[in-house]
């Protein structure tokens, strides 16, 4: 990405999570293990859904896309952070910083919309079951997923169109482990108060609109479930509880980062870790351990492998 603003800053310094060498070594080991779990766990879910015919339904198609998005989201920031633990001075080029911001908001914005799509899928399945097969056809699901990627891309580009034009001529220390809009805007050699408010409003509109739509969807679902049989209500609540847990884990850090920033350094770093690391880590666990169909698919997959090896 070109430096259209003719910035004199060619790179930024990432201050990371700690200045202690011993702590950095410990964090290196911890985050390396977490990243491997994130990648392997999300890949396992995608492969399981693709290969198991029992999981070829709209809900699991969307879940596979969520796992893929989570893996991408963590891969934007974690490999850089892990390698930076081995460096005394952690730097990132101006272009690399801009690309990181672009992809974090592209993937993150897309995931927000995807979570709304997943809530809509549960709404149709529970509130309008007779219309489910026609409303949530494969073509409709693909269209909704493409829409989520498109809205995420439009959101990211609208942010980048402003940031790349800012003058960066002095401060270059980013007090985090990756480049993010609120932190980078503070380094611009201009009065950034109004600009920060505008950028936060941009992200806030997407975040709060998605969050409100999710609340509306789950309110309708719970009202419908209350009128259902105990068996149907229990199954519906089990599925929706997993979705709601993921929604809370994803949206709370976003709200406090962009909509209602706390401006407390250690809190901002904690929320950044939560957003980039813990949410992609917890999503596979939440859906795997709380979903009976996924558990059964895993058993079938293991049984198939054992039988296949036994026949060799």
What brief labels describe this structure?
single chain, 312 residues, mainly alpha, Rhopdopsin 7-helix transmembrane proteins, 3-stranded mixed sheet, 3 strands, 76% helix, 3% strand, disordered N terminus
Structural class by SSE content: mainly alpha
Q: Please tell me the overall pLDDT.
A: 83
CATH topology: Rhopdopsin 7-helix transmembrane proteins
The beta-strand count equals 3
- Residue ranges: pLDDT <50 for 5 or more in a row? 1-6
Number of helices: 10
Strand arrangement, major sheet? 2-1-3
CATH class: Mainly Alpha
CATH homologous superfamily - what is it? Answer: Rhodopsin 7-helix transmembrane proteins
What is the molecular shape? globular
Looking at the overall shape, the CATH architecture is Up-down Bundle
Helical fraction equals over 70%
Biggest sheet record:
3 strands, mixed
What is the terminal separation in angstroms? 52 Å
Tally of distinct domains: 1
- What portion of the residues fall into strands of 2 or more residues? under 5%
Oligomer class: single chain
Tell me what the structure shows.
The chain is 76% helix and 3% strand. With 312 residues, the protein is mainly α. Strands 2-1-3 form a three-stranded mixed β-sheet. The protein is globular, with a radius of gyration of 21 Å. The protein has helices spanning 21-51, 58-84, 94-127, 132-135, 138-163, 181-185, 193-226, 230-259, 265-290, 292-310, and strands at residues 11-14, 91-93, 173-174. It is built from ten helices and three strands; from the N terminus they run βααβαααβααααα. The N and C termini lie far apart (52 Å). The model is unreliable at 1-6 (pLDDT under 50).
